[in-house]
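INTERNAL TRANSFER SHEET
From: sequence group
To: structure group
Subject: 3-carboxy-cis,cis-muconate cycloisomerase

Please process the attached sequence and return the structure record in the designated field. Keep the field labels unchanged so the import script can parse them.
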Amino acid sequence: MPSADVTSADVGLLSPVWAGTRVAHATSDAVVIASMLRAEAALGHALADHDVIPGTAAEAIESASREGAYDMVSITVRSREGGNPLIPLLSDLRERVAAVDDSASRYVHRGATSQDIIDTALMMASAGAFDVMLADLESVEDSLARLADRYRDAVMAARTLTQHGVPTTFGLKSAGWLGGVLRAATGARSVRDYLPIQLGGASGTLSALAAASSPGRALEVVQSFADRLGLAAPDVPWHTDRTPVTMVADACVRITDALGKIATDVATLSRTEIGELAEGTGGGSSAMPQKRNPVRSVLIKSAHVQAPALAATLHAAAAPADERPDGDWHAEWAALIELLRLAGGAAELAADLAAHLTVDTERMGRNVGLSRGLIVSERLMLELAPEIGRDAVRRLVVRAAEGADLRRLLIAELGTARSGEIDDLLDPAQYLGASELIIDRTLARYESAAAARRATKGDA
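Return from structure group:
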C-alpha cells in the first residue's frame, strides 16, 4: 500500500492555539504509543496478579515496553495495513519480548483486542490532558476571582443586542466569566475522575480470559488492570457504548464555551472605539504597527469555533452497530485528540490572558456617559411613573434620546428643589441591583471549590 512521507511530524503549524503547549505533548503520537505500551505492560501484570500468565512473562513484557525502542514513523505507516496502530506495535512488541524471554512472547496481549488497548490508551491520554487543562483552569479561576473582587465597583455599560442596556460593573462581568469556568471545570474534573479502562476481549464477553482462568477471575483481571493504570474499572465493556468518549467531548466543549465567552468579550471590549480592556501583552501587526491585537482572545475563539463540530463527530460515532464498530470507532481517534488539544490550548492561553488583563476603568466611565443619562432610563420609569405617569416618563426619555439634556428635562418636570434627588436618579453607580451580592455569592462558590481542591491535594 503506497504511503506519503510521514517523517515530518505535524507540530501544529496551522493550529497555534495548541502548538507548543503542554497539552500538545500530553496528546502527541509519542505519548499515545507510550500509553499503548503501558497498557500492554499493565495488562501483563494484571494477568500475572491472578496467575493467568507467569510473573516472569509480565516482567519481560514490561521490560520490552520501553517506548524509546519503537519506531513511531514505521508504526504509523504500517497501521494502514490493519486499520489501527496497535497491530504493528504489537508485532514489534512481541519481537522485543521474545528477545528478552522467548517463552513470554505468547502472553503478550493475552485476552485483549486492539480496541481494548487503543481505547485504554486514549483514556490515559485524556487523563493527562485533563490534568494539564484543569491546572490551567484553576489559574483562570484565581485570576477571575481577583478581577471580580477588585472591580466590583467599576461601573460599565451592560450591553444587550450590542447596545447599552443598564449599568453593571466589571466585577460582575468577571464573576459571570468565573461562574462559567467553575461549572466547566467541575464537569471536567468529574469526567477525569471516572475515565475507564477498556477490557472486553473480542466481543465484550471476556471469553478468552474466562477460558484461560474463570469468569470470576476474568473480572478480577479487569479490576487489576484498571488499578495499575489509575483509571476506573467499568461495569461492562464499552466497545459500542461510547459514553466515556462523548463525556470527554462534552467536557471539552463546555471548557471552550466558557473560555470562548471570555475571549469574545475581551476582543469586543478591546476594540479601538471601546477601549475598556486590553490584553496585557498584545500581538503586533505586520503592516500596522500601531495595532495591539488581542491574539490570545483570537486563538481561544478559534478553539471555541472548532470544538462543537469535533464533538458532533464523536456523538455521530456513538451509535455503532453490533458489538464492535466498523468505522465509527476509527473516526473518533483524531477528533478526540484534536478536541483535547483545543480545550487544553485554550485553557493555557486563558490562564495567561486572565492573569495579565488590562482594565481601563476611566474609559468604562466615559463610555457609560455616552448615553447622556439614558442608561438609567429603566430606573426612571420604575421610580417616576407612579408619580408623573408612564407616558410622561417615556416622553422625557424620547426627547433626551433626540438630543435634549435629560437632567434639565427632569428638573423642569420635577422642580429645582429636587435636583439632588435627580442627580441620584441619574447616577449609574446607584443602579446596580444585586451586583454586589451576586459577586459575593460567586466568590463564595469559588472559595469553596478552591478549598476542596486544596484538601484533595493535601490528601494526595
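Handover comment: Residues 149 and 171 are 6 Å apart (CA to CA). The longest helix spans residues 114-150.
Transfer complete.
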